[in-house]
Amino acid sequence: MTTPPGAEGNPSNEPGEPSPGRWSDLGRPPLNANALRRALVRDGGFWTDVALVSRTGSTNSDLVALAADGKAEEGAVLVAEEQNAGRGRLDRQWTAPARSGLFFSVLLKPAEVPVERWGWLPLLAGVATATALSRTAGVDTALKWPNDLLLTVGGEERKVGGILAERAGNDGVVLGMGINVTLREDELPVPTATSLALAGSPATDRDPLLRAVLRSLERWYVDWRAAGGDPATSRLQETYAAGCATLGRTVRAELPGDRSLVGEAVAVDGDGRLVLATGEGVQQPIGAGDIVHLRAEGEK
Fold first, then answer.
1. Which residues touch 133 (CB under 8 Å, ≥6 apart)?
2. Is it the case that residue 80 has pLDDT exceeding 50?
C-alpha cells in the first residue's frame, strides 16, 4: 500500500532520525510499523499491509482515496499517530493528542456477501473490538447501537471509541476506528468521553491492543464472509445483542429530517437495524440515526 500523500514524519519507524516530537511524551511511545507488519501480515492471513503515518487528516479519507487509485488492496491497514481531521458519524470531528489512542482504518471487499448485508460491518467491528478490549485491556466494554464503544466510569457510561464505515468504490468498505487509550481527564473532548486509562485498565500499551483488535476483526470478518454475511449463521447477531447496552433501554432516536422517536429498544433485526417498541404499540426498525440512552424513572 502506498503511503497517503501529505502524511508527515517517519512512517516506517526505521532506526535513524526520529520525526519531530516523536519521543516528546515518554508516556506515549510511538508504534513501530515493522513490528506490526511482522506480527500481522503473514502467508495465508487476511491482513496484506500495515502502513503507519505520524500525522494525517483522516485515515478513512486517505484509505478511500488509495483504494480509488488502485493503490490499496483488501486487508490494507492504515494507522495514524495523530489525526487532525478525523471524522465520526454525521461528519462530527474526532480529535485527540498524538499517540493518545488508536486511530486506524482497514479496507474490506466482501465480494461473497450481498450488498444489503454490508450494513452489518460497523456492528461486526464493534463486536470484534469489544471482544479484544475485554480480553487484552481487562475492561468490560459495551456497545451502543450502531457504532459506539462504551465503558462505565464512576457509575456513568462514557464513550471510549467509535467506528465509521464508508464505501470505497463499488466493491469495498473502509472501516475507521478511534479508541481513546491514555487520554487524561483534562484532554477529554466532552465530559461523556473516557479512555482505557481513566477506566483503570492495566494495559495501555497500544501495540498489543492494536494487534488484538485487528486479529479479532480478522476472525469475525472471515467467519461472517464465509457465511455469506448471514448474521445468524456467523453468530454475529446474537453476540452483538448480548453485548449491546442499548437493548432493553428507553431511547430517543434522532432521525434524518429533524425527526425523533422515543421507545424501548427491543431487538437488532436481521438487517442490523435497531427495533423500537413505541408507546403506540408499534415496533419500528431504525436503520440510521443518533441514539440517546434515556434514564429510567428513578435512575440516577
1. 139, 141, 149, 179, 196, 209, 212, 213
2. yes
